[in-house]
Specification:
single chain, 352 residues, 434 Repressor (Amino-terminal Domain), 6-stranded parallel β-sheet, 5-stranded parallel β-sheet, 13 helices, LacI family DNA-binding transcriptional regulator, transcription regulation, plasmid, transcription cis-regulatory region binding, DNA-binding transcription factor activity
Amino acid sequence: MTEPTKIKRPTQRTIAAKMGISVGAVSRALANDPQMSEETRALVKSVATELGYSPDRAAQRLRTGRTKVINLILPPHEEILGFGTLLIRGISAQLENTGYHLVVLPDFGLDKSAEQIQRVVRDKLADGIIFSRTTPDDNRIKFLLEADFPFVSHGRSELATPHPFVDYDNYAFGRQAAETLIDRGAQKLGILLPPERFTFRQHLLHGFMTSVRAAGVDCEVLDGISLDSSAEAISANIHKRFAAPDAPDGLVLPGDVSGLAALAAIQDLGLVPGQDVQLVVKQTSGVFDLVRPKVPSLYEDLSEAGEKLADLLLKRIAGAPTAELQYIQTISSGASTSDTSPDSQSRVSSAS
């Protein structure tokens, strides 16, 4: 029986022979050497793709000590539509042509993510880690700082030692969302918050209360549910609360799913959003641009966050100081202007 022909893997020497240049020139072009012309680099990469070349990662790791892998610890984030897709899209776009590959590890809880991070560091499975849902006293951040292992967190902690992060300005969201409700005539504001263990809960609440106190209106935090509650639980709780005679007439929802759940509950009671109850939603997916009746929303650009996370992590791997690796993402100019009243449209559009 004839043995199958073994396909020879193309190497940098194969590319060099085809192009009539040195192996060193090929290596420099594939490494994006800035001293080489962009045209030459593009041509070498084109020939490499044509030949089906891919770097020998085992040899590369032996030579450089690097895996050329970035790990993303990805939680479900069921309260945010498209969280994983949008974040991965941004990270992947930033890693393109860097030689780094993204490996996604699912995270089903803080304890599990801590175990995954420890395994990645112990077994040297990646050159850097990205993770989210930070807590004020986050043990994952402590561990990575002590191990001097490159990482960037999506969210901040309150640790004394500075660390690299990308975070959305939830203080500004809470403040501007409450201002929008007050401008629309709401006299008693309610807000749905994340679980107490997460840092961004305090940022949201602080911003919300800043506007509430300045305007002298009443407020409450929705009891018995959090941003992590199921859509069914949020809808049932809001239905019960808004059926009571002392219910709020304005509501802040910091997520797409909670916003949809609140809309369902309010309309099931026969109330009209924008008339009987004012709402402001934080959206990431764009779904509220299509919701009727129209609801004011402020936008969090998760693709941009992903790009920034990858950018800062590559800089951290290269040795950049932590002071240059902290970024607070402003409310995007992509904020929905789905509400048609001039006052509300001005308020929501100027969020950036």
